[in-house]
Amino acid sequence: MYRYDDFDHRLVAERVVQFRDQTRRFLAGELTEDEFRPLRLQNGLYIQKHAPMLRISIPYGVLSSKQLRKLAHIGRKYDRGYGHFTTRQNLQFNWPRLEDAPEILAELATVEMHAIQTSGNCVRNITTDHFAGIAADELVDPRPWAELIRQWAALNPEFAYLPRKFKIAVNGSTVDRAATLVHDIGVHAVRNETGEVGFRVLVGGGLGRTPMIGYVIREWLPRGEILNYLDAILRVYNRFGRRDNIYKARIKILVKERTPAEFTRAVEKEWERLRGGPATVPDEEIERLAAFFEPPPYARLKADDAGLRALLADNRPFGNWVKRNVFAHKVPGYAAVTLSLKKTGVPPGDVTSDQMDTIAALADRYSFGELRVSHEQNLVFADVQQPELFRLWAELKGLGLATPNIGLLTDIICCPGGDFCSLANAKSIPIAEAVQRRFDDLDYLYDIGEVSLNMSGCMNACGHHHVGNIGVLGVDKNGEEWYQVSIGGAQGEGAALGKVIGPSFAAQEMPDVVSRLIEVYVERRHEDEHFIDTVRRLGLEPFKERVYATAH
Amino acid sequence: MPRLIKDGAIVEDRWTLLREPASLAALPAEMPIIVPVALWKAERTELASHREVGVWLKPDDDPDALADDIAVLPLIAIDFPKFTDGRGYSIAQVLRDKHRFAGELRAIGDVLRDQLYYMRQCGFNAFAVRADRSLEDALKGLTDFSDGYQATVREPIPLFRRRAAGPLRAPAAAANDP
């Protein structure tokens, strides 16, 4: 993984000193609440319902065991012994004290971490494929590029006060595992007709109040031009994005109002000026960054392990787990393992400090001391030897992290919701739990197969509800919590936004609503159809009929 | 005389900012003034005939409109109606990098200590800090960081090129003003 040099260390240290003084001045009354707010937000600190919330950056989701131990320690010392992994591959603590925030940042700096720009109207954490570097369908390892963009974004003086938050995702595979179509900027590695690798650039995707799929504004960009092109896009957005209405301030609105063609022209014109300039990235820099992501010293293993095959045949629970939670690795004899943070009864994405310590020890033993956070709010051990899978499974089971449900209905993406977040209209965690309890029969869950259920407690869409095959949005009706349901959303290559099926539901109706949607699918699916395929073939009607015929 | 931060030091400000064109008549004939861009465009010959004139831009003014004036203007100011309005950073970049403006580039309006470092990286060299705040305190904001990753107006060579060239310059040297 990337390691800091003297420069990176100094920058983060100076940031800690700066924020410590800003916090002191705020507490001393020298900075007003309005003046302090953007400063604390750009250091990850929200003021929430019960306490401040501190969001810590995990660049493109890559974490070392040492860093995870530090997070466990921070959870214990400054919080209530747990943290919450987010859809931006970050970690949030929900109960720190404002006064402690500078000290927490100082502790993070000792393990090359920070909370820079995890909130506020600036460029947020760069996200990517959680299987980067190990997926067989990968064209380019996205991590060196994500690191390059991270450095460009970090404390970028020109783009610290944008009209609104700004999210960038990088994908290096033929399959999009980074939800790049619903980002302010999506960057895809692609080859041109001569076989040279460059980037396709998409702009204006996003969720939130006005969900949109991104437009391709350039089919192929020479790879060395990436920072010049980002500068051009951000400069156009910074100058012309709307600042009169917070709900119309994202870049997607600018792209739509100007038309994608007009917006593209403005960007291309600005890029012409910058092209070939000092920020052009030489291959040597990419090679330097790529060296941080060299493959670990893999053992030479057989592609097919007889012992593993025998266990898979004999042990059904283990077989289920391998089927759902283990992902193919490009190196023979290795596999990537997803640790499910979606156990029924535990808020999706939550991990205790004790679990973090044990996970760190397991990462050291089984996966070269590294792990990744997925945007589906699970953890990944990317480099596990296949003959070790059974032992690892047994250990994870003991920790409650081996729920064999990755990609299934109970692998719910869910924001903290009304239990914690002051923006939320409604709670989300209890609804997720009620649905998980309804679908606790593994055989039925497996029969249903792949389906994503995404839930957000408000329009801000932290739970990515628009791109869930089933999306649930918490809404406020006269002070009561209601839930609006959509179906047909999808992420990845065929990304689509779900359509609302009709009037919203009360909390206690939600398990029934999901059950009925699933029943229609089970009754009417063609062989080999996933839920989303059946929805696309049949349209909304049959689902609506079933849900409203009996529920209302 | 009011004071401001210029080139890293607190100095007296001999310029008068003309927020409203109508108040021009009330000013002494030879006082150096900073006028709205529209007034400059309409009356530049007459304005500049017997006094020094600078121009100030609102965040939605087009810096390209000053392309022909860059060589004659000694001072351009950019207004920050609120410190959270970041348009001025990009306008500064365009004036310095695209139009090669070499005169005084001044931040006016809601100008506060915690934004000064970023402003300077984008090409501002003068800061009319909000009147109710201490200039001495604001001055500290210029040295919050000793260096950054990006190619900026102040440091046109991005860090990755300087990293490649050998040992980075010492932070103490970087903190000094030009």
Description of the structure:
The complex is a heterodimer of chains A (552) and B (178). Chain A is α+β, with helices and mostly antiparallel strands. Chain A folds into 4 domains: 104 residues, Sulfite Reductase Hemoprotein, domain 2; 158 residues, Sulfite Reductase Hemoprotein, domain 1 (2-Layer Sandwich); 94 residues, Alpha-Beta Complex (Sulfite Reductase Hemoprotein, domain 2), CATH 3.90.480.20; 139 residues, Sulfite Reductase Hemoprotein, domain 1 (2-Layer Sandwich). Chain A is 38% helix and 17% strand. In chain A, strands 16, 17, 18, 19, 20 and 21 form a 6-stranded mixed sheet that branches. A 5-stranded antiparallel sheet of chain A has the order 1-2-5-4-13. Chain A has a 5-stranded antiparallel sheet with strand order 3-14-15-12-11. The longest helix of chain A is centred in the first third of the chain and has 22 residues. The termini of chain A are far apart. Chain B is of the alpha/beta class. In chain B, 27% of the residues lie in helices and 19% in strands. Chain B contains 6 helices and 8 strands. An 8-stranded mixed sheet of chain B has the order 2-1-8-7-6-5-4-3. In chain B, strand 1 and strand 2 form a beta hairpin. The longest helix of chain B has 12 residues. Chain B starts with a strand and ends with a helix. The C terminus of chain B is likely disordered. At the A-B interface, helix 1, helix 2, helix 5, helix 6 and helix 9 of A face helix 2, helix 3 and helix 5 of B.
Helix content of chain B: 25-40%
In the CATH hierarchy, what is the superfamily of chain B?
Answer: Aldolase class I
Which percent range fits the helix content of chain A?
A: 25-40%
Task: Indicate how many domains the architecture of chain B comprises.
Answer: 1
Q: In the CATH hierarchy, what is the architecture of the largest domain in chain A at level 2?
A: 2-Layer Sandwich
Q: How would you write the strand order of the largest sheet of chain B?
A: 2-1-8-7-6-5-4-3
Given the helix and strand composition of chain A, which structural class is it? Answer: alpha+beta
Rg of chain B, Cα atoms, Å? 17 Å
Q: Mean pLDDT of chain A, nearest integer?
A: 94
* Major sheet summary line of chain B: 8 strands, mixed
In the CATH scheme, what's the topology name of chain B? TIM Barrel
User: How many helical stretches of chain A?
Assistant: 18
Shape of chain B: globular
Low-confidence stretches of chain B: 170-178
Using the coordinates above, name the CATH class of the largest domain in chain A. Alpha Beta
